[in-house]
Specification:
mainly alpha; 65% helix; 531 residues; single chain
Length: 531
């Protein structure tokens, strides 16, 4: 008898753009269904003046109607233009492209990073990505492309460099070497919530300083182990296809002449690096001067309407924070040009523009992906589904009757789940802090430690939700360096690449929090996990 052939179902591999469109349609339809079932939630906000809880009712807003369609069509251009990853990426790439086109980045990688141990390079990349969250999300737009370049130049899979940089930022969000913009945004909510129990309680900006410094180093070590032991072996080797169609030309090489050419290039490269370092130092010192108050013509980048220096530096209207991406781009731009002049890799302004333009040619597909990602995130936010899920989490915590470690673990898990749908830390903390902070204070756990729990829970799931605004840059660069253009890396595959990192880092976050609480180490100057 003839053997029956087994039928194999063809696997569909939706392009990330197609997946974004399908997700948009799903959210629109879901909003209509949930609105029809009157899905809603009530959460409490603290009135900072009266210190009273004020209930806020939030319902699902349907986009599957006349007004919803009007919102989608009328806001499409605004959503795209105002999407932070778009402007930050384009500005950062201008500087990076010039630095790459003039040869600065290649020379630095060849001279310094290629001589390092591969694990050291991975650690440095993850560590820089982790501490980059001190100021906005600059790590996503600068270190993801740089990570790919560094790994590729060292003969390693650039996808691993992209994953390491992205995971370093996403799963270590807010773990830095100093207090930054996250503290400035969270502390007002922490303080107001603490005043529900103790009106005199004060939460300082440095209250999490010790624990975030320690965490930034520990996360980088654990992240390096995950990337080297799990991510890199799973990705395999990166083999670029060579074009054998072109006829080879045989050229007789004068060995002595080739040696002289190398010596000459070496000399020019050294001079170029010297020019780049001098110009870079001048630019950095200029920026530092601009954030020092009360000196002649200084303080240009500070918001002088604020009372404290950290608020002037990292406040909502800080010129330093708003302009940091441009500052980084300007630094790379000036250093790249200085290198090109010193190394004689550029002869005119046309060389700079043409070289930078060529380096940016590859991001066309990424721009298309960013457009649909901006629509998805804006549309989902408009439905209020994320806010309602977070409010449900807050209500769940308020109904709990236990304390100590079980309460800490439940709070971490609630924050981690809520973060899948509401990725902005301040938006979550607005809803969760009036419940989490008093509940923990009644268990003798400090509000400062409660604030650190938000940071930990956030970081546990940041890298696996497409609703994270900067996830689109991650998947975009995965496909830029994907060798098989016929089979694009899907959103599901991208999440699968980060899932081992997510699971292991989440376990580490939980163990770190519990261990710190049990040992009772200070989390900041004069601040402990317990009151």
């Amino acid at each position: 008898m003839k053997e029956k052939k087994k039928l194999k179902l063809k696997k569909f591999r939706f392009h990330p753009v197609t997946t974004m469109i399908l997700l948009i349609l799903f959210v629109v339809v879901l909003s209509g269904i949930l609105s029809a079932f009157e899905m809603q939630a009530t959460y409490n906000q603290v009135n900072p003046n009266t210190l009273q809880l004020e209930p806020t009712l939030v319902t699902v807003k349907s986009l599957l109607n006349y007004d919803g369609m009007k919102y989608i069509f009328s806001n499409a251009a605004r959503n795209f233009i105002s999407f932070a990853p778009l402007s930050m990426l384009l500005i950062a790439l201008i500087g990076l492209s010039v630095a790459q086109a003039t040869g600065l980045i290649d020379t630095v990688i060849k001279r310094y990073f290629s001589k390092m141990n591969k694990r050291t390079v991975t650690f440095l990349l993850i560590f820089l990505a982790t501490i980059s969250t001190l100021i906005n999300e600059i790590g996503y737009v600068v270190l993801i492309p740089l990570g790919a370049m560094v790994f590729l130049a060292n003969g390693r899979n650039p996808l691993a460099g992209i994953i390491a940089a992205f995971c370093g930022v996403a799963f270590g969000y807010g773990a830095t070497l100093f207090v930054g913009s996250l503290e400035v945004g969270l502390i007002p909510y922490t303080t107001s919530a603490a005043h529900l129990i103790d009106e005199s309680f004060h939460v300082s900006l440095t209250s999490n300083l010790f624990i975030i410094i320690a965490t930034s180093i520990l996360l980088s070590v654990v992240g390096t182990i995950i990337v080297e032991k799990i991510v890199v072996p799973r990705l395999g080797r990166y083999k670029e296809k060579k074009d054998f169609s072109q006829t080879e030309e045989i050229e007789l090489i004068d060995v002595e002449e080739e040696e002289q050419t190398k010596i000459k290039e070496e000399k020019y490269q050294k001079r170029g690096l010297r020019f780049a370092m001098i110009s870079g130092l001048i630019v950095v010192l200029s920026f530092i001067y601009m954030i020092i108050p009360n000196l002649p013509a200084s303080g240009m980048l500070l918001d002088m309407s604020e009372n404290t220096y950290l608020n002037q530096l990292f406040g909502a209207n800080s010129y330093f924070q708003d302009g940091f991406t441009f500052m980084m781009a300007l630094l790379f731009l000036i250093m790249g040009i200085a290198y090109g002049i010193g190394a004689k890799t550029i002869k005119s302004d046309k060389d700079i523009v043409n070289g930078a333009t060529k380096c940016m040619d590859q991001i066309g597909q990424l721009i298309v992906l960013i457009f649909f990602a901006s629509q998805l995130i804006s549309i989902f936010k408009e439905t209020n589904i994320g806010t309602i899920i977070t409010a449900w989490g807050a209500n769940l915590i308020s109904d709990l009757s236990f304390s100590g470690i079980p309460l800490i673990v439940v709070i971490l898990l609630v924050i981690a789940i809520a973060n899948l749908f509401l990725t902005t830390p301040t938006s979550k903390w607005l809803i969760l802090s009036p419940v989490v902070v008093p509940a923990l204070m009644q268990s003798n756990i400090s509000p400062q430690f409660a604030q650190f729990l938000l940071r930990a829970g956030d970081s546990m799931t940041n890298g696996i939700t497409p609703l994270l605004a900067y996830f689109v840059i991650f998947i975009g660069y995965l496909n830029i360096y994907n060798l098989n253009k016929e089979k694009p890396i899907t959103i599901k595959q991208a999440i699968g690449m980060t899932m081992p990192y997510c699971l292991l880092i989440s376990a580490f976050w939980i163990l770190l929090v519990i261990g710190w609480y049990l040992i009772g180490l200070p989390i900041g100057p004069g601040v402990y996990p317990t009151i």
